[in-house]
C-alpha cells in the first residue's frame, strides 16, 4: 500500500509537470495554430527525422490521405522534389541549432493522392525542449492551389499580350521623358538596325543613334507628345530611288494626370500614298478618260428617244438587239415587252425628278455578269427635258461584295466563339450599343438585340448604380485623353445577381479627331473577385482566431471563457444579440451565463426584463437539446417567444417578444466527450452569411478545446482520496492482477463475482473464467504481460461464486503496480445485453420474413434499414435505398397535409397511422397503409423512426370500383327521377290549361265576343305548341340516355346549316321584330350529325328569341381555333336580351336544376333545351358555355370539329 501511495504521488507530480509544460506551450504562438481551423487548414507536428507524428483530419480533404497514411510514411515522400529538398535543408539547419527561434513562411508543393499538384501556404516554427534543444517543428498549412493557378493564368495572359506585341506588322516602341527606350518590339528593333546599324536595347537613349538632322526632328516630335498631345505624321524617304511612306502615331502615356512617357506606333503606308497619287493624276485626266471609258453612256428625251450615246453603248446595243442607235432613235427598240416595260418605268421615274441607280444581272456563257446604271434627270431651268444614263460593269464588285459578306459572317462567328464580350458603342451618355457579341447573354442574361440601340435596356442601366458614375467618369476621362481605358466594376444580371466584370476599351476617331465609336471587350471576373473577398475574410478571421486563442488561454474560469465567447461573436458578426448558456445535458438543464447586444439600450431593456433570471436554471427541451448536440450552427424555426418560453416565465417571454423584432435564431452546442457543456443562441434580423457559419463553428470548437483543457487542468488537482473514491464507486468491475493472483479489486468486482476482497487474494484470474474459455484467456493474458500482440477489449463468460454464468466485457492494459508488471482490467456485466441480442436475432428473423414493408430511419429521415419484402415490393435493392430519404418513393399524389400531419405527430413522440400513394422504381404507382412510430432511448429522446407498411393497392382499386358503381347508380336514379318529375309536372300543367280553356269555350262560345274567342284559341295554340316542343325535347333526351339515338356525322356547310335553322325561326323573329344575322364564314365546313346540330341551333336560337326584347338583334358567328393541335370551330349565338346572373349561369346546363324563366313576352321554356344542347355538343367532342351580363344580353358558345 505504501508503494501505491508513492505511485499516486508520482502520478500527481507527473500531471503537475504536464500542466507546466502545457503553460510553456501556451507561450509558443504556433501552439495556438494547432488549435485553429482544424476543418479548413492542416495542423501538423514534424519530428527530428522529418516524419509527421501528428496531423489534423483536414489532411484527407486537402491531400486525400488519412491521418494514419500520412503519419506512416516520411513526409518527403509526399512532396515534389524541390519541396522535399527545401524541407530536408530546413530540418538539418535546425538540428544544427541554426535559426531555431525563427518563424518560417513558405509555399510547399505536395502530391495529392490522385497525383495532382497541391500548393500549401505554410507557417512553421521550431519546438525546443526545456534545455533549448530542437525536438521538432509545428505548423499550419493552407491550400492555395487556386491562388497559384490564378497567378499562373496571369503570367500566361502577360505572355499572350507580349506575343501580340511582337507579332504585329507595325513597329512599336516607347520612350520616357529622357528619350530613353522603355519598350520596343522586334520589328522596330530590326528596322532601326537596318537603317542606322545600331541594335536598340531598353534603357538606351534613342536620340544618341540618330544623325543630326533627324535628331532635332525626332526630339521635337517627342517633346510635343510629352507635352500631352496625341498626333500622327507621315514621313517619306527613298530606297533605291523608290519613294516609301510611313505613318507614325504619337500617344502620350498619362499616370495620375502627368505624362510619364510616349508610345509610338509606325506603319508602312506606301501603298495607300501611291493610291492617293494615282487618284490625283486620274482626276487631272478625267475628261480624256471619260471619252475612252468602258462605261456605257447615253441620254433620252421625254419621248424616250436617244439624245446622245457613246460608242461603247451603241456597239453593245447593236450586238444585243441588232439596232444602230442614233439621235432620235426609240431608245427601247427591239427590246422584249418585259424589258421595254422595265426601262420605260425607269425612264419615267427619272423624268419625274428622281435620281436613282439600278443593278441588272445577266449571264454570258453561264457566267453571271452585273451592270449598274445611274439615271439622272436633265434639268433646264425648272423643266426636265430628258434623262442621262451611265452604265458600267460591276461584276467584279458584286462578286467581291459576296466574298465580303462571307468574310463578315466568318468574323461574326469568330467573335461569337470568343469567351469575352466584344462590343462597339456610341460615345453618348448611354453608351448605346451598335454591336455586341452573343457572349453578353451568358454574362448578363440580356440578348444582344435587347441592348443594341437601347431597344429594351441601355448597357449603362445594367451597371450597378453604385458604379455608374465611376465608369462614366473614368471611361470618359481616358477617352478624352486619347487613351484606352481598363475598368473593374459590377453589373446587375437580368436575374438580379451581381457580377464583377473587367472592361477594356478604346476610341475610334474620325477625320476631325473626334471619337466616332468605342470598341472594347468585357470579361467576367466574378470568380476572381469572390476569391479575393473570401481570401481577405479568411485571413481576417484567421488573425482573429489566432489572437482569440491567446486571450482564451489567459482566462482561468469557465464563466469568463463563455463571456469572452459571447462578446467576441457579437463584435465579429455584428449580429443583434448573442446569448451563452452553460448546459448539463445529462440532467437536461441549462444556465444563462452571458448576453451581448449590438444595441446597448436594447441590452439594458432586456436585462431589466430578465432581472434575477440571470444564472438561474431552466429545463432544456429535448428538440433544442438534440439540435445543440449536433455541435454545428443550426437555424431555429420559431420566433423569440418560442425560444425563450422554456428559459424565462411566459409573461417575461411575451415582453421580450415586443422588444425583439422578427428575425432569425441560430444555436450551436459546445461538446466535451460527446456531451454538450455549453451552447450559444444567436439572434439577428438578417440571416447569417454562409461564410460566417464556418467561422462560428471554428470559434466554438476552439472554445471547446480551451474548455476541455481547463477541465483537464482542474482534474490534475484531484486528491488520492478522490481517485480511490472513483475506483471504489465505479459501476465497472476494476481489478489489478498478475499471473499469480488478484492484487486489488473494487466493490463492483465484488458485486459481480460474489467474492470479497479478502477472498480475491486466494484466487487466480483464470479461476473465474468459464472452463471452455480458459485456454483462450490464458494466451491473451500471457501475450499481454510478455509485450506480444493481444486484444485490449474482449468478451468472455465468467463463473461467479454461486456458479452462475455471467458475460463480461473487459478492457485490459498493462500497468506498473508497485514495481511489478500487472494487468489493469475494467469489466462490465453485459449478461442482460447478451440475452437481448439473442432476442434481437429472433426478432430480426421475423422482420426479414414478414410480408410487410419495414423501414427504419434516423431522426433526419435517412433510411438505415429495410427488410427484404420492401425491396421485393418497390424494386429497389438494399444498396440503392440505404442512405436515401423515403421521399424517393413519393409519387406526388399524396397531399402535403398528410406529410405535415405525419411529422407533427411523430416528432411529439406519438404513433401515426395513415396512407400513402407511392411510386416503385419502375414508375408504377401503388397504395400503402402505414404505421410510423418513434423509437426512444432511455432518456426519452427520439433516436429513430420505425415504419411498418402494407400494400393496399388491390384493396383501393376494388373499393374505387364499388364507389364508381354506386355513383353511377345514384346518377342514373337521379336522372330517372328528374325525368318523371318533368313529365309529371311540365306536361300536366299545360294540359290542365288546355282542358280548362276548351271547357270554357264549349260552354260559353255562343255568349263570347269573336275577339275573346280568338284570344282563348290563341292561348290554346300556344299551350299545345309548348307541349309539343317539350315532348320533342323529352323524347330526344330519353333516346340519348338510353343509347337509342344514333350518331351519324357528315360534312356540313356551317353557313348553310345556320341559314336553314334561321328560316325555321324567322316567323317568331318577325313577330317580335328581332333581326337574325348569319355572320358565319361561308368557307367553314364542320363534321357533325345533322339532327343533333339542328336541335342545338334550334334551342339556342329559340332561347335567344325568347329572352330578347322586340326590335333587338341576334347574331350567329364563327371563329377557328385549335385544341390539342386539333382544328375546331367556335360557334357563338349572341343576343341583346335580358341576360342572367352568374348564379343562374351555373344552373342552366344541369338536369337536376331544371332551370327555366319566362321570356320577354312571358314565353315559357321546357327546361331541357340547354341540357340537350350540352349532351349533343359533348357527343361531337366539343364543349358548350356562355357569357352573360344582366340587362345587356348573353352569348352562348359551342365548339365543333372542323371537316378535314
Can you give a write-up of this model?
- This protein has 1204 residues and is α+β, with helices and mostly antiparallel strands.
- The protein folds into eight domains: 126 residues, 2-Layer Sandwich (Beta-Lactamase), CATH 3.30.450.20; 125 residues, 2-Layer Sandwich (Beta-Lactamase); 65 residues; 106 residues, 2-Layer Sandwich (Beta-Lactamase); 162 residues, 2-Layer Sandwich (Beta-Lactamase), CATH 3.30.450; 103 residues, Beta-Lactamase, CATH 3.30.450; 102 residues, Beta-Lactamase; 159 residues, Histidine kinase-like ATPase, C-terminal domain (Heat Shock Protein 90, 2-Layer Sandwich), CATH 3.30.565.10.
- The protein has 38 helices and 43 strands.
- The strands form nine sheets. It has a six-stranded antiparallel sheet with strand order 23-22-21-26-25-24. It has a five-stranded antiparallel sheet with strand order 2-1-5-4-3.
- About 1% of the residues have low confidence.
Summary, kept brief:
The protein is of the alpha+beta class and 1204 residues long. It is built from 38 helices and 43 strands.
Which overall shape is indicated by the principal axes computed on the Cα atoms?
flat
- The figure for the number of domains is 8
Low-confidence residue ranges: 29-38
CATH third-tier fold name of the largest domain? Beta-Lactamase
**How far is the first residue's CA from the last residue's CA?**
112 Å
Let me know the CATH homologous superfamily of the largest domain. GAF domain
Strand content: 25-35%
* Strand element count: 43
Biggest beta-sheet profile: 6 strands, antiparallel
- Lateral arrangement of strands in the main beta sheet: 23-22-21-26-25-24
SS field, number of helical segments: 38
Q: How much is the average pLDDT?
A: 81
Helix content: 40-55%
Structural class: alpha+beta
| CATH classification, class level of the largest domain | Alpha Beta
Rg value:
51 Å
Report the CATH architecture of the largest domain.
Answer: 2-Layer Sandwich
Amino acid at each position: 500500500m505504501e508503494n501505491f501511495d508513492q505511485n499516486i504521488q508520482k502520478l500527481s507530480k507527473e500531471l503537475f509537470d504536464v500542466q507546466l509544460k502545457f503553460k510553456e506551450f501556451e507561450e509558443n504562438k504556433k501552439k495556438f495554430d494547432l488549435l485553429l481551423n482544424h476543418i479548413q487548414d492542416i495542423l501538423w507536428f514534424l519530428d527530428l527525422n522529418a516524419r509527421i507524428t501528428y496531423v489534423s483530419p483536414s489532411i484527407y480533404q486537402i491531400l486525400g490521405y488519412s491521418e494514419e497514411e500520412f503519419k506512416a510514411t516520411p513526409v518527403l515522400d509526399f512532396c515534389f522534389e524541390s519541396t522535399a529538398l527545401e524541407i530536408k535543408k530546413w530540418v538539418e539547419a535546425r538540428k544544427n541549432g541554426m535559426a531555431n527561434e525563427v518563424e518560417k513562411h513558405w509555399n510547399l508543393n505536395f502530391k495529392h493522392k490522385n497525383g495532382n499538384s497541391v500548393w500549401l501556404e505554410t507557417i512553421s516554427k521550431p519546438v525546443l525542449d526545456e534545455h533549448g534543444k530542437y525536438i521538432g517543428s509545428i505548423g499550419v498549412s493552407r491550400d492555395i492551389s487556386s491562388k497559384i493557378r490564378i497567378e499562373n493564368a496571369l503570367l500566361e495572359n502577360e505572355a499572350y499580350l507580349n506575343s501580340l506585341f511582337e507579332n504585329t506588322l507595325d513597329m512599336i516602341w516607347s520612350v520616357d521623358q529622357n528619350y530613353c527606350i522603355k519598350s520596343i518590339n522586334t520589328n522596330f528593333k530590326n528596322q532601326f538596325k537596318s537603317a542606322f546599324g545600331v541594335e536598340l536595347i531598353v534603357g538606351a537613349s534613342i536620340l544618341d543613334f540618330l544623325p543630326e538632322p533627324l535628331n532635332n526632328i525626332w526630339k521635337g516630335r517627342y517633346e510635343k507628345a510629352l507635352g500631352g498631345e496625341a498626333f500622327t505624321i507621315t514621313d517619306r524617304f527613298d530606297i533605291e530611288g523608290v519613294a516609301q511612306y510611313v505613318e507614325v502615331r504619337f500617344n502620350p502615356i498619362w499616370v495620375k494626370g502627368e505624362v510619364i512617357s510616349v508610345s509610338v506606333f509606325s506603319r508602312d503606308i506606301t501603298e495607300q500614298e501611291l493610291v492617293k497619287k494615282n487618284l490625283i493624276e486620274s482626276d487631272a485626266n478625267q475628261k480624256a478618260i471619260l471619252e475612252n471609258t468602258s462605261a456605257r453612256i447615253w441620254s433620252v428625251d421625254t419621248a424616250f428617244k436617244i439624245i446622245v450615246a457613246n460608242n461603247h453603248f451603241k456597239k453593245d446595243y447593236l450586238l444585243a438587239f441588232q439596232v444602230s442607235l442614233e439621235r432620235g432613235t426609240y431608245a427601247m427598240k427591239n427590246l422584249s415587252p418585259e424589258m421595254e416595260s422595265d426601262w420605260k418605268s425607269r425612264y419615267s421615274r427619272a423624268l419625274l425628278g428622281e435620281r436613282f441607280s439600278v443593278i441588272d444581272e445577266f449571264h454570258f456563257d453561264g457566267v453571271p455578269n452585273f451592270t449598274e446604271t445611274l439615271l439622272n434627270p436633265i434639268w433646264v431651268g425648272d423643266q426636265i427635258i430628258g434623262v442621262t444614263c451611265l452604265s458600267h460593269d460591276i461584276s467584279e464588285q458584286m462578286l467581291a461584295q459576296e466574298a465580303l459578306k462571307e468574310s463578315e459572317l466568318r468574323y461574326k462567328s469568330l467573335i461569337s466563339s470568343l469567351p469575352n464580350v466584344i462590343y462597339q458603342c456610341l460615345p453618348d451618355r448611354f453608351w448605346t450599343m451598335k454591336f455586341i457579341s452573343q457572349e453578353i447573354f451568358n454574362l448578363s442574361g440580356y440578348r444582344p438585340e435587347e441592348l443594341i440601340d437601347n431597344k429594351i435596356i441601355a448597357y449603362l442601366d445594367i451597371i450597378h448604380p453604385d458604379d455608374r458614375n465611376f465608369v462614366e467618369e473614368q471611361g470618359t476621362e481616358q477617352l478624352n485623353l486619347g487613351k484606352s481605358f481598363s475598368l473593374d466594376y459590377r453589373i446587375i444580371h437580368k436575374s438580379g445577381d451581381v457580377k464583377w466584370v473587367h472592361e477594356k476599351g478604346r476610341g475610334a476617331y474620325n477625320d476631325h479627331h473626334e471619337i466616332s465609336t468605342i470598341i472594347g471587350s468585357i470579361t467576367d471576373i466574378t470568380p476572381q473577385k469572390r476569391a479575393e473577398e473570401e481570401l481577405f475574410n479568411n485571413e481576417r478571421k484567421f488573425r482573429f482566431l489566432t489572437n482569440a486563442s491567446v486571450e482564451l488561454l489567459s482566462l482561468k474560469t469557465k464563466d469568463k471563457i463563455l463571456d469572452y465567447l459571447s462578446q467576441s461573436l457579437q463584435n465579429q458578426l455584428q449580429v443583434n444579440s448573442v446569448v451563452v448558456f452553460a448546459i448539463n445535458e445529462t440532467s437536461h438543464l441549462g444556465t444563462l451565463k452571458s448576453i451581448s447586444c449590438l444595441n446597448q439600450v436594447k441590452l439594458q431593456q432586456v436585462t431589466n426584463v430578465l432581472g434575477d433570471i440571470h444564472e438561474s436554471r431552466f429545463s432544456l427541451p429535448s428538440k433544442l437539446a438534440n439540435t445543440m448536440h449536433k455541435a454545428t450552427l443550426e437555424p431555429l424555426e420559431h420566433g423569440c417567444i418560442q425560444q425563450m418560453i422554456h428559459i424565462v416565465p411566459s409573461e417575461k417571454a411575451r415582453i421580450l417578444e415586443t422588444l425583439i423584432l422578427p428575425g432569425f435564431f441560430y444555436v450551436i452546442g459546445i461538446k466535451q466527450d460527446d456531451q454538450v457543456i455549453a451552447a450559444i443562441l444567436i439572434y439577428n434580423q438578417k440571416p447569417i452569411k454562409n461564410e460566417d457559419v464556418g467561422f462560428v463553428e471554428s470559434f466554438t470548437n476552439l472554445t471547446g478545446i480551451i474548455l476541455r483543457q481547463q477541465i483537464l487542468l482542474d482534474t490534475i488537482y484531484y486528491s488520492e482520496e478522490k481517485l480511490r473514491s472513483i475506483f471504489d464507486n465505479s459501476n465497472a468491475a476494476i481489478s489489478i492482477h498478475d499471473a499469480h493472483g488478484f492484487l486489488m479489486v473494487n466493490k463492483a468486482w465484488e458485486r459481480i463475482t460474489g467474492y470479497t476482497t479478502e477472498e480475491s487474494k486466494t484466487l487466480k484470474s483464470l479461476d473465474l473464467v468459464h472452463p471452455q474459455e480458459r485456454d483462450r484467456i490464458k494466451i491473451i493474458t500471457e501475450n499481454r504481460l510478455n509485450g506480444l500482440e493481444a486484444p485490449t477489449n474482449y468478451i468472455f463468460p465468467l463463473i461467479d461464486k454461486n456458479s452462475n454464468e455471467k458475460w463480461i466485457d473487459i478492457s485490459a492494459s498493462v500497468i506498473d503496480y508497485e514495481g511489478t508488471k500487472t494487468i489493469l482490467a475494467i469489466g462490465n456485466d453485459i449478461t442482460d445485453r447478451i440475452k437481448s441480442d439473442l432476442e434481437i436475432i429472433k426478432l430480426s428473423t421475423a422482420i426479414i420474413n414478414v410480408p410487410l414493408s419495414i423501414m427504419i430511419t434516423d431522426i433526419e429521415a435517412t433510411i438505415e434499414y429495410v427488410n427484404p419484402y420492401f425491396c421485393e415490393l418497390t424494386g429497389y435493392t438494399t444498396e440503392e435505398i440505404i442512405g436515401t430519404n423515403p421521399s424517393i418513393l413519393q409519387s406526388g399524389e399524396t397531399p402535403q397535409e398528410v406529410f405535415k400531419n405525419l411529422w407533427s405527430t411523430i416528432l411529439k413522440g406519438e404513433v401515426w397511422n395513415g396512407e400513402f400513394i407511392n411510386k416503385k422504381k419502375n414508375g408504377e404507382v401503388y397504395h400503402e397503409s402505414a404505421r410510423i412510430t418513434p423509437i426512444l432511448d432511455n432518456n426519452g429522446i427520439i433516436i429513430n423512426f420505425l415504419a411498418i407498411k402494407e400494400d393496399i393497392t388491390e384493396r383501393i382499386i376494388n373499393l374505387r370500383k364499388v364507389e364508381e358503381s354506386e355513383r353511377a347508380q345514384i346518377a342514373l336514379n337521379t336522372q330517372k327521377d328528374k325525368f318523371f318529375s318533368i313529365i309529371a309536372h311540365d306536361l300536366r300543367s299545360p294540359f290542365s290549361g288546355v282542358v280548362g280553356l276548351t271547357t270554357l269555350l264549349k260552354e260559353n262560345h255562343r255568349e263570347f265576343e269573336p275577339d275573346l274567342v280568338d284570344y282563348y284559341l290563341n292561348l290554346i295554340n300556344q299551350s299545345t305548341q309548348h307541349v309539343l316542343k317539350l315532348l320533342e325535347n323529352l323524347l330526344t333526351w330519353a333516346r340519348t340516355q338510353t343509347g337509342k339515338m344514333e350518331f351519324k356525322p357528315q360534312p356540313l356547310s356551317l353557313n348553310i346549316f345556320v341559314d336553314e335553322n334561321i328560316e325555321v325561326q324567322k316567323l317568331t323573329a318577325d313577330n317580335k321584330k328581332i333581326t337574325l344575322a348569319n355572320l358565319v364564314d361561308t368557307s367553314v365546313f364542320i363534321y357533325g350529325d345533322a339532327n343533333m346540330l339542328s336541335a342545338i341551333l334550334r334551342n339556342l336560337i329559340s332561347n335567344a328569341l325568347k329572352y330578347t326584347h322586340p326590335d333587338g338583334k341576334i347574331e350567329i358567328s364563327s371563329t377557328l381555333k385549335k385544341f390539342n393541335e386539333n382544328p375546331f370551330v367556335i360557334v357563338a349565338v349572341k343576343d341583346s336580351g335580358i341576360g342572367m346572373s352568374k348564379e343562374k349561369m351555373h344552373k342552366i346546363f344541369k338536369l337536376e336544376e331544371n332551370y327555366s324563366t319566362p321570356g320577354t313576352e312571358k314565353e315559357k321554356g321546357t327546361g331541357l333545351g340547354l341540357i340537350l344542347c350540352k349532351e349533343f355538343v359533348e357527343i361531337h367532342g366539343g364543349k358548350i358555355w356562355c357569357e352573360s351580363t344582366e340587362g345587356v344580353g348573353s352569348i352562348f358558345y359551342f365548339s365543333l370539329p372542323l371537316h378535314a
